TrEMBL record, chain A:
Coiled coil: none annotated. One of its GO terms (biological process) is SRP-dependent cotranslational protein targeting to membrane. It comes from Desulfamplus magnetovallimortis. CDD domains: FtsY (cd17874). It is an enzyme of class 3 (hydrolase). Part of the signal recognition particle protein translocation system, which is composed of SRP and FtsY. GTP binds at residues 108-115, 190-194, 254-257. This is Signal recognition particle receptor FtsY. It is a peripheral membrane protein.
Length: 302, 306
């Protein structure tokens, strides 16, 4: 597929994030009535947007709708509400000379797609001409090191690893050290999946972060939390506890190539004021897209 | 959040103390709260709608028990309904059909199949069977190594698949190899796939056709949201599932997916995964799941006694 084709494919996936067929709902001559609101509510809930945000949007939209007569006019109101859910993207520090290497720690619950997303990012940075190193700090899960090694290979980037069962904080430390010594631009730290409710494992994550900043003050520059689009309301609890433990700075939403809409990411982004930076749309190395709320919401309705 | 559904309902029903009958009007407001609780627990929107209308029917005209407030009475009706919905007498694993028996694990990417294969192997061995682990994920980086490591941790033999082999060939060869090794139950760890991935879903059908497994189990993540019904329905339609295992129940997910999946497939929930270790597997209890979905914790015990 050529680049344009890929971009379009990505966009159509982006379009799928929250809703499908919303345009149908807002067809020109449809009346604004109870049944329209009911359908709207169903779409929002089924997109995993969460009951709080759904109620909030429904209330706002219904208030504003009193001055309007057709569903088509309502569309703009609805669009604005959706856009407002996503915080504006922050400036990335990637080109800050003081932050070299730019250290990114990838975190999240089990099986969301951390390692895969990290592998895709490695290739993305590499293809931008950056020098990239991966620290294999998931020393717990069976064959996690072997998995991330294959990704390092695919992206032809360096890797720092210890043996299985080693202290992940030590791996992260060594990764940053090697990154500094070898003049890397980006260091990506793969961490083991862990449920946010497991105190000892969250403490371990804190320790990894501490050891990174011990070696390089200011690092990690980014803590990327990976959410699975299939996840429902639990993502809110995940985000809250990961944020409390290590301060999440940005989000990635994976598995949008399925039928799940991943709407909960809007609630997460809103509550943490962290931008959704990337979306995963497949298992391949090229299946990563940057997320842009403006483009996304507009695409939803064009 | 919703840890006090009973309290919320009691507030709603304050006016209606002690005795009395549940009428259309007085349960309407209570059921609204229940509906919100279900949606917060990730019960599918349409399933919740149906459940609520069923419950309304059941509740209508019921006398409020002396020992309960109307709020508690509603919760009890909902709880009983859920327990019945999710219960099933046939929750044991099925080893019927061809010998050696084989159990196939299927599901979305990252749901917990490989880990669950290791857990089931240990469980089966403790129950006097001779399990044989079969890695069939030739796609994901290091998926075969992952199962090999789990197998060696628990001392269960693993078929030496390679990523160059075709999945169906792996399975047919593994059956012969299991017999040679003196094993009686194959655990087939398939690659994660999307239910809408035509090619990979066809691959599962081909495996099923070639080895005629005694059981195909869907491994689903307890944190799954509204899409759980699409996923379960698609896998069930293609493969006729024997049951479901809900993984990652050790977190704080309400697990509404359990109810949704049961409602659309009718297939029994057989086990839950409660951790990453190979010992972290438990049988599924419908009553516990019902109180978890309702966010009731142990506060239900007083209702059960009533
Ligand atoms: N369809 C699809 N699959 C994905 C995507 N991202 C990751 N996966 C798959 O999801 C599964 C889990 O991905 P991993 O990268 O291993 O997840 P993880 O978070 O590192 O898992 P743990 O380290 O075990 O917690 C793998 O089968 C990946 O191929 C995506 O965007 N789409
Ligand atoms: N906390 C917890 N983690 C689990 C449970 N079951 C599996 N996991 C973790 O979830 C992640 C994914 O598990 P896997 O067994 O690799 O999932 P999979 O379905 O085989 O993944 P793919 O083969 O990539 O599709 C790993 O980090 C496991 O350790 C569970 O019951 N509780
Ligand atoms: Mg990983
Ligand atoms: Mg697997």
């Amino acid at each position: 597929m050529d680049l344009i084709g890929k971009f379009k494919k990505g966009l159509s996936k982006t379009r799928d994030i929250l809703l499908t067929d919303v345009n149908e709902l807002f067809s020109m001559d449809r009346k604004i009535d109870e049944s329209l609101f009911e359908e709207l509510e169903e779409i929002l809930v089924m997109s995993d947007l969460g009951i709080d945000i759904t109620m909030e949007i429904m209330e706002k939209v219904s208030k504003k709708s009193r001055k309007l007569s057709t569903a088509d006019e309502l569309k703009e109101v609805f669009k604005d509400e959706l856009k407002a859910l996503f915080p504006v993207k922050e400036e990335t520090l990637l080109n800050d000379p003081k932050a070299k290497p730019h250290v990114i720690m990838v975190v999240g619950v089990n099986g969301t797609g951390k390692t895969t997303t990290l592998g895709k990012l490695a290739l993305k940075y590499k293809s931008e001409g950056k020098k990239v190193l991966i620290a294999a700090a998931d020393t717990f899960r069976a064959a996690a090191i072997e998995q991330v090694e294959i990704w390092a290979d695919r992206a032809s980037v360096s890797i720092v690893k210890h043996r299985a069962g080693a202290d992940p904080a030590a791996v992260a430390f060594d990764g940053v050290e090697a990154g500094m010594a070898r003049g890397m631009d980006v260091v990506l730290i793969d961490t083991a999946g862990r449920l946010h409710t497991q105190k000892n494992l969250m403490d371990e994550l804190r320790k990894i972060k501490r050891s990174v900043s011990k070696r390089m003050p200011g690092a990690p520059h980014e803590v990327l939390m990976v959410l699975d689009a299939t996840t429902g309301q639990n993502a809110l609890s995940q985000a809250k506890l990961f944020n409390e433990a290590v301060g999440v700075t940005s989000l990635a939403l994976t598995k949008l190539d399925g039928t799940a809409k991943g709407g909960i990411v809007a609630a997460v982004a809103k509550s943490m004021k962290a931008p959704l930076k990337y979306i995963g749309i497949g298992e391949g190395v090229e299946d990563l897209q940057e997320f842009d709320a403006e483009i996304f919401v507009d695409a939803l309705f064009d | 959040m919703f840890d006090n559904l009973s309290d919320k309902l009691n507030a709603v029903f304050k006016k209606l103390k002690g005795r009395g009958t549940l009428t259309e009007k007085n349960i309407e407001e209570g059921l609204k709260q229940v509906r919100l609780a279900l949606l917060e627990a990730d019960v599918n929107y349409r399933v919740a709608k149906k459940v609520i209308s069923d419950i309304k029917e059941r509740a209508l005209g019921q006398d409020v028990m002396d020992s309960l407030t109307p709020g508690q009475q509603i919760v009890k009706i909902v709880y009983d309904e859920f327990t019945t919905m999710m219960g099933d007498e046939h929750e044991a694993l099925n080893f019927g059909g061809a010998t050696p028996a084989s159990i196939m694990l299927v599901g979305l990417q990252g749901s917990g199949k490989t880990t669950t294969a290791g857990k089931l192997a240990l469980f089966l061995r403790k129950n006097g069977r001779k399990p044989y682990l079969v890695p069939v994920d030739v796609y994901r980086p290091a998926a075969i190594e992952q199962l090999q490591k789990l197998g060696s941790q628990i001392g269960v033999p693993v078929f030496p698949s390679t990523a160059q082999m075709a999945p169906v060939d792996i399975c047919t060869e593994a059956v012969r190899s299991a017999i040679n090794e003196g094993c009686d139950t194959l655990l087939i760890d398939t690659a994660g796939r999307l239910h809408i991935d035509e090619e990979l879903m066809a691959e599962l059908e081909a495996i099923k056709k070639s080895i005629k497994p005694s059981e195909i189990l869907l491994v689903a993540d307890a944190m799954t949201g509204q899409d759980a019904v699409n996923i379960a329905e698609s896998f069930d339609k293609r493969l006729n599932l024997g049951g479901v295992i809900l993984s990652k129940m050790d977190g704080d997910a309400r697990g509404g997916a359990a109810l949704s999946i049961k409602a659309v497939t009718g297939k029994p929930l057989k086990f839950i995964g409660v951790g990453e270790k190979t010992t972290a597997l438990e049988p599924f209890y419908p009553d516990r799941m019902a109180s978890r979905i309702l966010g009731m914790g142990d506060t239900l015990s007083f209702i059960e006694k009533a």
